[in-house]
């Protein structure tokens, strides 16, 4: 989801001039002229799921050549992968102090980030849908080294996949 795909139609005989209109079901995606028997179109299929795509060729000289339509091709649009990165400021602190944890999700999406020390949840913060950033202030009560990760859960799980940062 959120990316495009290249659709290519090949017309035979290649010398026949005309145009190809690409369809997602009955919805026109766009029309391009053929060049040397081929037509290429960059299509953005905006919804997650299976799209049934066809190409309809219309010759310039319809007295000598007939229109033709391709067999249908299924194009699957799935959820977009995300990447979550984590930073802490400061990364070294005195006992009783706190650190600000910042998770950045790419691409930016609405959702929540849960911060963990190993398998123990430290808390959750919402991501800013425009920047993909979530911040959380953690008070680490024990002296020692912590292995902190951030797990992003998107609001729209049909369009975006979850991701977890490195520690």
Helix content estimate: under 10%
Note poorly predicted spans: none
Total beta-strand segments: 14
Radius of gyration: 25 Å
State the end-to-end distance: 28 Å
Helix-strand makeup class: mainly beta
Q: Tell me the overall shape.
A: rod-shaped
Per DSSP, the total helix count is 0
Beta-strand percentage? over 45%
Instruction: Give the rounded overall mean pLDDT.
Output: 93
* Order of secondary-structure elements: EEEEEEEEEEEEEE
Q: What kind of sheet is the major sheet?
A: 5 strands, antiparallel
Could you characterize what this model shows?
It is rod-shaped, with a radius of gyration of 25 Å. It starts with a strand and ends with a strand. Strands 2, 3, 5, 6 and 7 form a 5-stranded antiparallel beta sheet that branches. With 167 residues, it is mostly beta strands. It is built from no helices and 14 strands. Strand 13 and strand 14 form a beta hairpin.
């Amino acid at each position: 989801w959120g990316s495009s795909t290249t659709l290519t139609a090949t017309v035979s005989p290649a010398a026949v001039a005309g145009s190809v209109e690409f369809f997602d079901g009955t919805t026109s995606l766009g029309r391009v002229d053929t060049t040397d028997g081929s037509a290429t179109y960059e299509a953005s299929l905006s919804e997650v799921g299976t799209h049934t795509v066809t190409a309809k060729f219309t010759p310039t000289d319809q007295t000598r050549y007939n229109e033709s339509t391709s067999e249908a091709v299924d194009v699957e649009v799935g959820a977009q992968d995300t990447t979550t990165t984590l930073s802490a400021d400061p990364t070294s602190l005195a006992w009783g102090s706190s650190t600000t944890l910042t998770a950045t999700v790419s691409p930016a999406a609405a959702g929540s980030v849960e911060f963990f020390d190993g398998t123990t949840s430290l808390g959750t913060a919402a991501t800013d849908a425009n920047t993909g950033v979530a911040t959380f202030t953690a008070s680490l009560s024990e002296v020692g080294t912590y292995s902190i990760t951030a797990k992003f859960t998107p609001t729209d799980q049909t369009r975006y996949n979850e991701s977890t940062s490195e520690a």
